[in-house]
Amino acid sequence: METIPDHDSYIAAAPEAFRPVLDHLRGLLRDALPEAEEMMAYNMPGFRTRGTVVASYAAFSKQIGLYFLAPAISEHADELAEAGFKTSKTGITFPPRKPVPDDLVTRLAQASSKHVND
Fold this sequence. Notes:
The chain has helices at 7-13, 19-32, 70-75, 77-82, 102-114, and strands spanning 37-41, 44-49, 52-59, 64-68, 86-87, 91-94. It is globular and about 35 Å long. Helices cover 39% and strands 25% of the residues. Helix 2 (19-32) packs across helix 5 (102-114). The chain has 118 residues and is α+β, with helices and mostly antiparallel strands.
């Protein structure tokens, strides 16, 4: 598997229908996490604060994954369930045509960041 060097390359290599959503997520996360650095881990773009990955995203064949520290997901579990999103301990998956609302992405990112070094 080819190593993808950065967020731009990752988004460019994603299926065309996913690119606008991935680019939008990147911008939301960058704005919500101004102290974080963009990085790549496990061929997935993410944002790192004080050495900890606090947010990342990925394109799969039919859906997009958005990942945060587990406490951020659990703090917003009811809201995510009410909105009909499929979640795991650390992530949310959704089709590109039904993205996570911007304000919720921002709140999840900020919640994830506050749990660094907890």
